[in-house]
């Protein structure tokens, strides 16, 4: 899948590129890896983006010595004859390597804004049963099936009552089911995975009725349609049910629609260590007390990862202090953890105190004066 051109907005004004670094812990049978994947994204003269560099580094756990091996570079792009001939890279490429084909594939990948390292065409030239191929396939599987991202775009679609992306994840299927709440509650599902969708909604209902009493989801098949390729889709309606009465999802509050949208993958993350869910503005529209109750349960019990941003201070009282990172006003050091926290400290009180006294290493908030704000309003009368 090509990189979204909106990623150019991540590049700081005046800079030419941005470097993103991700670290993973991977277990494959009896092997354990710590893997670093780095990607450098640049802005072109045409104001689009391109991938300038990709690197995979890794460290493997030596069971006999009970230690981690020093980090090594497994592969990096852009490919060139000099790079491929290096011993540390050459061991991963097959003897039938065709440099010209690799360079052509690399050029096409760059133009299409897709990864060279993860392309199927490049994998043809890699040796089987190597650490590199194991790691590439593990990262692909993770990205396709276990990584879920909820962006502000999705929040906007829910707020405007246009679309509710129902995220599901179980053993048989995963992904987003777009529900058109602006017109009706119809969803289109391939007949082969429809039973998995029904099962996912049943799982959501088990938790949903404990979060929002008397609320359930109900899916009803309306009709089938046969596609030109011979596959069959099922068109179904999805509605909320309260006290036995069906209600259109568009009439539910924004917070309830958000909870419904992400609950399927929250359940998966609660039970599966390999699931990661990243949510922007998690607190948007959700009742503060209810949000705190949900996060308190997840904070102590979740097996997977939940990464989110929020402005709600109640969260500071419900999540373990070591799991909270604060944004700062310093672009060179944008995120920090609080220091000097005692076991009996209330992090919410500490945060509010820090906004005024500024005892931490970085400033969290540029001070404003109420009198200046009042004067500014007065001037524009």
TrEMBL record:
The protein's name: ATPase AAA-type core domain-containing protein
Which species does the entry assign this protein to? Fusobacterium periodonticum D10
């Amino acid at each position: 899948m090509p990189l979204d051109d909106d990623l150019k907005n991540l590049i700081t004004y005046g800079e030419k590129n941005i470097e993103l670094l991700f670290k993973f812990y991977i277990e494959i049978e009896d092997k354990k890896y710590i893997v670093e994947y780095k990607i450098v994204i640049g802005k072109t003269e045409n104001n689009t983006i391109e991938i300038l560099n990709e690197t995979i580094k890794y460290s493997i756990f030596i069971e006999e010595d009970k230690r981690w091996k020093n980090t090594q570079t497994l592969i990096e792009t852009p490919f060139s004859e000099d790079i491929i001939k290096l011993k540390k890279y050459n061991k991963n490429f097959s003897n039938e390597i065709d440099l010209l084909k690799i360079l052509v594939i690399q050029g096409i990948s760059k133009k299409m804004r897709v990864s060279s390292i993860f392309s199927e065409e490049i994998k043809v030239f890699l040796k089987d049963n190597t650490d590199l191929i194991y790691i590439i396939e593990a990262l692909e599987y993770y990205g396709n099936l276990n990584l879920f991202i909820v962006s502000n775009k999705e929040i906007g679609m829910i707020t405007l009552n246009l679309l509710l992306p129902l995220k599901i994840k179980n053993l048989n299927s995963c992904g987003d089911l777009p529900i058109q709440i602006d017109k009706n509650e119809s969803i289109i599902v391939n007949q082969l995975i429809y039973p998995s969708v029904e099962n996912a909604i049943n799982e959501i209902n088990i938790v949903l009725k404990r979060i929002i009493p008397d609320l359930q989801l109900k899916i009803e098949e309306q009709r089938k349609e046969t596609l030109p390729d011979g596959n069959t889709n099922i068109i179904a309606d999805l509605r909320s049910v309260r006290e036995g009465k069906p209600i259109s999802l568009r009439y539910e509050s924004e917070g309830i629609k958000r909870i419904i949208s992400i609950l399927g993958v929250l359940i998966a993350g609660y039970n599966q260590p390999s699931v990661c869910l990243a949510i922007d503005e998690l607190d948007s529209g959700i009742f503060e007390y209810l949000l705190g109750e949900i996060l308190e349960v997840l904070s102590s019990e979740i097996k997977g990862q939940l990464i989110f941003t929020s402005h709600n201070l109640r969260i500071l009282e419900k999540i373990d202090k070591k799991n909270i990172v604060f944004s700062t006003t310093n672009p060179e050091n944008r995120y920090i953890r609080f220091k000097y926290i005692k076991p009996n400290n209330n992090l919410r009180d500490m945060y509010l105190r820090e906004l005024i006294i500024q005892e931490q290493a970085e400033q969290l908030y540029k001070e404003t004066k109420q009198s200046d704000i009042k004067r500014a309003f007065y001037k524009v009368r």
